[in-house]
Hints:
Oligomer: single chain
CATH topology of one domain: Rossmann fold
Radius of gyration: 22 Å
CATH architecture of one domain: 3-Layer(aba) Sandwich
Structural class: alpha/beta
Number of helices: 17
Strand order of the largest sheet: 4-5-13-10-11-12
Distance between the termini: 61 Å
Mean pLDDT: 95
Low-confidence stretches: none
Largest sheet: 6 strands, mixed
Amino acid sequence: MENNFNCWFQSIDDPNNKFPIDEIIYRCPDTGSLLEVAHDMEALKKHDSTYWKDLFDSRYRRQSWPYGSGVWGKKEWVVPFIDDKNIVSMYEGSTNLFWADRYGKQIGVEDLWIKMCGNSHTGSFKDLGMTVLVSAVKQLIDNGNEIKAVACASTGDTSAALSAYCAAAGLKSIVFLPKNKVSVAQLVQPLANGATVLSIDSDFDGCMKIVQEVCKKNNIYLANSINSLRIEGQKTISIELCQQFDWEVPDWVLIPGGNLGNISALGKGFLMLRDLGLIDKLPRLVCAQAQNANPLYLSYLKDFKSFEPVSAKTTLANAIQIGDPVSVNKAIKILKEFDGIVEQSSEDELASSTAKVDLTGTFNCPHTGVAISVFEKLVKNKTIKKSDKVVIISTAHGLKFVDSKIDYHLEKLTGISNTYSNLPINVDNSIDDVMKVLDTEIK
């Protein structure tokens, strides 16, 4: 379709502070606040809701470049300024909305769904934002900007997505990882994709400070979620899950939160759906944090009247081991608008919940385990009702975190109850011994 849609950057503190969408800028120079991408809603409203639904449905999972992508099928709502020739896509999005009926019945909520965002090219929802960001970099270069490399700080998943999309685009990527704090599967992805990998003797927050300083120099572009272009891709989760429900809205959506760009993106997607008439209500949002990295939860307990960073402790959910999230103000704004909840999960709770839901056929990351654990708490205290339609966002594939899963089932984790551990059984090379074991196991 003809592109008559515009977008721009604006300050989240003062929407009157606007900046061109093709400017390399991450914060408002006047207020210091993060930026967000704003769309020409009046132009979008010239088409009614039926038009948008039919357009998005006609593209969904098709092979018409680039619109078969779950992100680029909504291009007009995401980043319409990017020419198709500069789009870098790996058919991201369009992930399974899994009906977790067996697990839901165990907990007491039968209309339970898990959005399997880890079923993506690099194994996490980060692909949704990175396809937009790397495509924007190609567009900026095509417009005459000199960009030597794209860089990010990461706890693993962002670096995997950045390195893969940059490799596909022929761009140089640089990733800053906290030393010995990412899984082997996460570490090998940027190595294999040819990124320059810097292992910093710090945590994510320390890496984040360094990468922001680095990106002020040498024409290096910043790829963390401080960059609002990432949010535009991630917000398509909201649009897609409503599309998968034939444009119905769930009652609840839960997602794990670390740097907090994800909860911000979810809210933005739902607001756009409502404002353009595709839905007539908003779900309640829940941000789930690990107890060992819970600054937003602590702020929530004070009704968000103040926020203080924390020193994040080690957690099995290492991708959200973040004590000073850059998108906190965006997250708080969204949670207030959606009557949102923030809840936390202990290490034992998240490990047990991950193992419990795996027993019903899923294979989730520990961060999803945080959201699963919080879901169980909200059902137990009757906040979530039996009749509610609930979606849990699974942010990454469990295969990226096999070390923690193996340690759980081999009962090597300290302070964990191992309620659902499943130890392998050593058996002699004898049919009689095998049958003795099976007689016990199969009753």
